[in-house]
Write a structure and sequence with these properties.
CATH topology: Rossmann fold
Distance between the termini: 43 Å
Number of strands: 9
Number of helices: 8
Structural class: alpha/beta
Order of helices and strands: EEEHEEHHHEHEHEEHH
CATH superfamily: P-loop containing nucleotide triphosphate hydrolases
Helix content: 25-40%
Radius of gyration: 18 Å
Strand content: 15-25%
Number of domains: 1
Strand order of the largest sheet: 5-6-7-3-8-9
Amino acid sequence: MRAPNYDLPLMFVDVTILAGEVKILDNISLTFDTGAPTVLIGPNGAGKTTLLRAAMGLIPASRGRITWGGREAAPPDRLGIMFQRPVMLRRSTAGNIFYALAAANAPRNTHQDRVNDLLTLVGLQALAHRPARQLSGGEQQRLAMARALARTPTILFLDEPTASLDPHATKAIEDIIRSITRLGVKVVMSTHDLGQAKRIAGDIILLHRGRLIEHRPAAELFDSPHTPEAAMFIAGELLV
């Protein structure tokens, strides 16, 4: 699997998203391009999930625009998203991926090879015939990643993918993120775990109250934050 990159860069240009009179995202301008994972951090309610959903095309911008490779319309067949609590279909582990491939209109003669490749990528080949709902929490997250990758996405959006996992399961997810990054998939993910952000991020986006506080290479932000909010957040203090 090698991801296409002709839909990049993904650009937010002065994007505001309103819920009634409340600004969930406030005049956000960002560019996502190929390379190492981009990690979104910030307190609860900062706008991280809304930003991911807007990038995916699930929430329209109230103001501003979102473009893919200079085009206004998101490419629905080349987007992948994994939510924090994915729903498992009442099928086997492999059956969940077969379903995702059919939904993505992948050629039928490629399905079996693709299922095998994706199960190998996420380390679930030995559990191919187990009912998906009998998998552990970490195994279900890995299966959800395989389903999202069935579209061979340009960008894979991950919303708190390890929020309730133990360290062993968290490491497995992080290893998969590194593997798919090497395959050319751009990963954009949110996390509350600053240690995780340090381990895997190429660049960091800090959001607070829907505003973009900082967007910088990870090492620079952690070593020398430019704003008081960033300094407080990485020091473990509460942003309110």
